[in-house]
């Protein structure tokens, strides 16, 4: 009878240890997954900002080039 109680208590303690360890490890994994998601979102936002700045820079460069050409043409017409 004593051996049966010992095995029962040992099985219960082992099960509790397993579930406790799984719960603790799951909490750590959930925290790191949230950090990864927020980091990914920040990277996407920063990439979009860089792309927008790049397109604005290209547009402003094109506008400046067009203005310079029109100024050069106006200067050439005044010389003529």
Give an overview in words:
By secondary structure, the chain is mainly α. It has one helix at 2-79. The longest helix has 78 residues, at 2-79. The radius of gyration is 35 Å and the shape is rod-shaped. It starts with a helix and ends with a helix.
Give keywords:
1 helix, mainly alpha, about 80 residues
Tell me about the largest β-sheet: none
Mean pLDDT score: 75
- Indicate the structural class: mainly alpha
Computed over alpha carbons, the radius of gyration is: 35 Å
Strand composition percent: under 5%
Gross geometry? rod-shaped
**Helix-residue proportion:** over 70%
Summarize the structure.
The chain is mainly α. The protein has one helix spanning 2-79. The protein is rod-shaped, with a radius of gyration of 35 Å.
Task: List the SSEs and their pairings.
Blueprint (H helix, E strand, L loop, with lengths): L1 H78 L1
